[in-house]
Design goal:
Elements: E1 2-3, H1 9-19, H2 25-52, H3 57-65, E2 67-76, E3 84-91, E4 97-102, E5 109-112, E6 119-121, E7 131-134, H4 136-141, E8 151-156, E9 161-170, H5 196-204, H6 214-219
Antiparallel strand pairs: 1-2, 2-9, 3-8, 4-7, 4-9, 5-6, 5-8
The protein binds 2-oxoglutaric acid (AKG) and fe (ii) ion.
């Protein structure tokens, strides 16, 4: 399940109320506290990435204000000892940045190698580690300099895996495009300006649903 605008107490409480009409303040508080703390990590990570490409402070501040956070809570039932089943099909995330954490069930999320040949288990190095994935909009914004890894979730082992993710999602109607600083002779512009909602529709209901190279197909130059 997903809680949109998880940084906002009113929207979180409204979501909680739909599941527990009598209220469930510990659920609301857990979602808001997760959103607040993991958002800090999201902001810090995006800031570091952007600074490393020489984008200036005013651009970064404006960018960080242009996103909202979606918190998703996922459950993958365990399987029989010798079995292995797909829990979430291979995809790339559409948003800016995704930060995932999970319970102590180690195996689950897998990332495809760039040569498209192998799946690598992306096990967190320790319990307190997060998995960070670049989304399609960050890829477009940074003119392809941060990749959007193809990933999937496998169900293996008998234990149930839970994961929680914070997805920073554009909330702006403004078109998303790479600033001039990201474009030069070595890095020609790769994408046309893109409207996130339209891209979302295209990859949800349109022909882009299973397209693992959707940015290129949808807005590639
Ligand atoms: O559950 C996970 O670890 C991954 C979930 C995921 O990839 C997604 O929600 O986009
Ligand atoms: Fe994902």
């Amino acid at each position: 399940m997903g809680v949109d605008y998880a940084e906002n107490a009113d929207t979180v409480n409204a979501f909680t109320h739909r599941l527990w009409p009598q209220g469930n303040s510990s659920f609301s508080e857990a979602v808001m506290s997760f959103a607040e703390k993991v958002s800090e990590l999201d902001f810090m990570t995006r800031r570091m990435i952007m600074e490393s490409f020489g984008l200036d402070e005013s651009y970064i501040k404006k960018h960080l204000k242009s996103t909202k956070c979606l918190v998703r809570l996922m459950k993958y039932q365990g399987v029989e000892e010798t079995e292995e089943e797909l829990g979430m099909e291979p995809h790339t995330d559409r948003n800016m940045l995704t930060i995932l954490c999970q319970n102590d069930v180690k195996d689950g999320i897998e990332v495809k190698t760039k040569d498209d040949k192998h799946w690598i288990k992306a096990n967190p190095s320790q319990d307190s580690s997060f998995i960070v994935l670049g989304g399609a909009m960050l890829h477009v914004l940074l003119n392809g300099r941060v990749l959007t890894g193809v990933h999937r979730v496998m169900r293996m082992g008998t234990n149930t895996r839970f994961s929680a993710g914070l997805f920073s999602v554009p909330k702006t109607e403004d078109l998303i495009y790479a600033p001039e600083e990201m474009v030069d002779a070595e890095h020609p512009r790769l994408y046309k300006p893109v409207n996130f909602e339209a891209y979302f529709q295209y990859t949800t209901e349109g022909t882009g649903r299973r397209d693992l190279c959707a940015p290129r197909t949808y807005c590639g130059l």
